[in-house]
Amino acid sequence: MSIEMKDKTPQRVVEHYVDPTPFNPATTEEMTAEQERFYQASQWQIMWWKFKRHKIAVWSGVILILFYLCVPFAELIAPYDANTRDSLHLYAPPQPIHLFHEGSFVGPFVYGMTSEIDMETLQWVFKDDPTQVQKLRFFCSGDDYEFWGLFDASFHLVCPAEGGTMFLLGTDRLGRDQFSGLVYGARLSLTVGLIGVFISIVLGLFFGGIAGYFGGLADSVIQRSIEIIRSLPELPLWMALSAALPVTWSPVWIYFGLTIILGLLDWPGLARAVRSKLLSLREEEYAKAAVLMGAKPKRVITRHLLPGFTSHIIASATLSIPSMILGETALSFLNLGLRRPSISWGVLLNEAQNISVVTVYPWLMAPVLPIIIVVLAFNFLGDGLRDAADPYK
């Protein structure tokens, strides 16, 4: 006797969704063209498209471009020469810019200042004088300077009124304008990082390329040297080498000596990154094919291996510049780096070593603001470049 079993489990009906919109072949063609554009793009084009999506990195790049415009045109932007002294305005406070006076539009101007001695503290006390409306002059003639060492000029984008003052960030103990000092200081503080990174890249690529491609004894010697350098404390080593620079050197030689010191101590990190990349890339088929075809090691490294991670080198260099800017600032602040008449942000901060002076004249800490902005901008820009150079993102 057979028992017939029936499956009484209800069957689930799978619904199919059909898009009611009519088929548009133009849309498909556009998608195909976009895909072909992506697949045919070069490495740099793909990196640029990915970088543009990182909005913070893009704006950081714009900010850095604006800062670096101060390097070649510092004389035009600054209203005064960085070493011009005003004995009547020692430790003068910042003068804010106004547009309206007594309810009527006047244009950009500052109020004049009156000064008197406080007999209790024996300090000069400055107060705004509303009766002195000093309109700012634009595209005007001011302090003389030698533009790029080529010719004498006196043209400035903005100048104080005739017989007036314009201390946007106050003055120091000798009556020197802080804002002009910041503009001139950007020339040395920003370029010291670029030159130092260039030295670091050259040394890092050279030693890292030798260690990664040849290996063996050369790799062991270079790695042990890197470990010795990285085991030394960074700031005391900077201080020792900077103190060894002769005091009789000119400011130009001191500047180049400082950049060489910063570059010589920064290459080990990049060298290790280059070594690790070459160790993996030298086993690729295209590298072995170049060797079998008779290419010399120099050509294999420079033409076949290094271009494979050039974008990573650029990102690493961008992240190294802030440390060099901070290194120069620290050494100049401690009076071991650049000194007057050279102007850098660290030299300006040297005026704020005494905390009692800073509490009374807080505007002497103004150079801290551009340092923070530039360091953060470089870090954000480096993060954006690193993400854009990563093929897995």
Automatic annotation (TrEMBL):
Xref: PROSITE patterns: ABC_TM1 (PS50928)
Name listed for the protein in its UniProt record: ABC transporter permease
Family membership: Belongs to the binding-protein-dependent transport system permease family.
Sequence ranges assigned to domain ABC transmembrane type-1 in this UniProt record: 186-382
Taxonomic path: Bacteria, Pseudomonadati, Pseudomonadota, Alphaproteobacteria, Hyphomicrobiales
Gene3D superfamilies attached to this UniProt entry: MetI-like
UniProt cross-references to InterPro entries, sorted A to Z: MetI-like, MetI-like_sf, OppC_N
Keywords: Membrane, Transmembrane, Transmembrane helix, Transport
Compartments, record wording: Cell membrane
Transmembrane segments: 56-78, 147-169, 190-215, 235-265, 305-326, 360-381
First-listed, main subcellular location of the protein, grouped into a coarse class: membrane
Keyword field contains Amino-acid biosynthesis: no
Lipid bilayer topology: Multi-pass membrane protein
